[in-house]
Amino acid sequence: MESDSALVKRTLRGDHHHYGVLVRRYADYLFGLGMRLTRGDRALSEDLSQQSFLKSYLYLKSFDLNKSYKHWLTGIALNCFKDLRRDQWDYVPLVEADEPQLTPDFRSDDAFFELIRPLSPEERALVTLRFVYEYQVDEIAELMSLKSGTTKSKLSRALEKLR
Amino acid sequence: MTEFDQIIARERAKTYKQRELEVFTYYTVILIAEASATSRLKRRLGLTFVGLALSMLILLPLLQGVVRAVAEYWAGVGIYEIGILALLSYALAGLSVFVISRRWI
């Protein structure tokens, strides 16, 4: 399997179809992240993952090939989530077509979505990254463009809300 | 293990999947290609505009002399010269049409 950085290098050389491999590789990961951030909104999660891939392609030149592509993509997805929140009043989800449901309904076990219900979108992102994806506080701070101390205090405030 | 830990552990174990991975990938790659073509076109249009503006800046002083010479020439032209020029123009146009049609047949 070709590495992420090799595929990025090829894409930067002008063969943008190589980016399709990366899209396929991380589509489910970004969709999952989107589902957790949006508390199970499938349409919004699909939109979020698509926007993240599009933005990541447009800013691909700024990607440091020595760093993790997945980590960089996560940062972009979080930024897209922030933008989406800003525009959420204008957002109208796509009308669900009458197509067969190929995957199970995720709402059958929505304990996690219920758990994070009292949290603000930012706190939701912090809790998801820290506890579900097991990122370190410093990594979360870097991903969300926050100071380490601010991240820590915001996280403890979010946990207090959950108690 | 608290209830919080249990919910988190269950969530960690869960995997989410796109409804139609192939369709999603295909559509996203198309969007990427479209975005890349748009930015390339914008860059080219910008370059063309700058090139045209620069060449106009360089050529304008040269063209001014030519325009003045043409204006001076036409000031002294009579009906006879105009007739000759019209004839020459039609002959050139006819010749061009003939050559083009021969070439395309």
Task: Explain how this protein is built.
Chain A is mostly helical. Helices cover 63% and strands 0% of the residues of chain A. Chain A contains 8 helices and no strands. Chain B has 3 helices and no strands. By secondary structure, chain B is an all-alpha fold. The longest helix of chain B is centred in the middle third of the chain and has 55 residues, at 21-75. Chain B starts with a helix and ends with a helix. Chains A and B meet through helix 2, helix 3 and helix 5 of A and helix 1 and helix 2 of B.
**Can you tell me the overall shape of chain A?**
globular
Coarse morphology of chain B: elongated
Order of helices and strands of chain B: HHH
* Mean pLDDT over the residues of chain B: 88
Taking pLDDT < 50 over at least 5 consecutive residues as the criterion, the unreliable ranges of chain A are: 91-97, 99-106
Average pLDDT of chain A works out at: 86
Order of helices and strands of chain A: HHHHHHHH
Estimated share of beta-strand residues of chain A:
under 5%
Number of helices of chain B: 3
Q: Which spans of chain B of ≥5 residues are poorly predicted at pLDDT below 50?
A: none
Helix content of chain A: 55-70%
Beta-sheet strand percentage of chain B?
A: under 5%
Helix/strand structural class of chain A: mainly alpha
**Beta-strand segment tally of chain A:** 0
The count of DSSP E runs of length 2 or more, i.e. the number of strands of chain B, is 0
Oligomer status: heterodimer
Instruction: State the share of residues found in helices of chain B, binned by percent.
Output: over 70%
Radius of gyration of chain B: 34 Å
Distance between the termini of chain B: 86 Å
Taking the sheet with the most strands of chain B, its summary is:
none
- Structural class based on helices, strands and sheet pairing of chain B: mainly alpha
Keywords:
heterodimer, A: 163 residues, mainly alpha, 0% strand, B: 105 residues, 3 helices, elongated
How would the blueprint of this fold be written?
The complex is a heterodimer of chains A (163) and B (105).
Chain A: H1 4-12, H2 19-37, H3 42-58, H4 69-86, H5 111-115, H6 121-132, H7 137-143, H8 148-162
Helix pairs in contact in A: 2-3, 2-4, 3-4, 6-8, 7-8
Chain B: H1 3-13, H2 21-75, H3 79-104
